[in-house]
Give the backbone structure.
Amino acid sequence: MKRLSLLCAALTVAFAGQALAEEVVVYSARNEQLIKPLFDAYKKETGVDVKFITDKEGPLMQRLKSEGNNTPADILLTVDAGNLWQASHEGLLKPVKSAALEANVPAHLRDPKGEWFGLSIRARTIFYNTSRVKPQELSSYEDLATAKWKGRLCLRTSKKVYNQSLVAMLMAEHGEAKAEQIVKGWVGNLATDVFPDDTKMLEAIGAGQCDVGIANTYYYGRLMEKNPKLPIGIFWANQKGSGTHVNISGAGVTRYAKNEKGAVRLLEWLSSDKAQNLYADSNMEFPVNPKVKSDPKVAAWGDFKHNYINVAKAGELQAAAVKLMDRAGYR
Ligand code: FE
């Protein structure tokens, strides 16, 4: 009898272990409404449960740090290569090797060490008031620093990682001194104080408070869907040079993942043809997998040349970019 109950206990533990091994736990800085449909689809296809919590990336990383090897999280999912690089830098992620991820995610949109992978692309490009600016007058981020845009430029605050990443990429391309000149030029051209978010900045362009500005494409998509008559145009920056600055939303396997295999399988699935439209279209982003076509609404903005510098640079140079923006008076 004693042996039987021990056996039962052992079996219960084995089954519980198996059930736990099956489920994947995700800490997500991406909104519930964007990720839940994906995880529901994954469950339907594979039978695997995905449990998740959502919060801002700062608190999620803090949580991973304080939980250490007791963390229930298998995956950290967030936006901006700057944030993913930071998580990797703080030792919160572990490198994984996956032929599927390497095939589905272009090399410049994933960590060279394999600690994180892009899952969707957002471009940070130039927007303009269509009744005050002709697209032929526009060319590049660098050009927005020249005297012709004096009093006409609007920007979002430098506190946002999106702008830190953009400036980091300018530093990677031009070196620190020239990048600082460019940022100083922007600051000198500002029409008004910096904006707390991309949407307010775009609305100011629509209202004619400024003529040009820089924002992420999906904010433009959302705003124009709500108010298609706004006189705001999209312009692909730096097409004659190194291409438009792109960034990612993406994910990595946590250092202390209990279900590493399950985590990798989920990431592979998220990067696959099956999931990419579901992942990207819901936020008007571009699929990261080159075999997958964009949503028609997004494709309507036209094709553009991407900047192919590895987005990891945005993280490597983030601290220096923050200092540079401070010196340039970009608040
Ligand atoms: Fe955003």
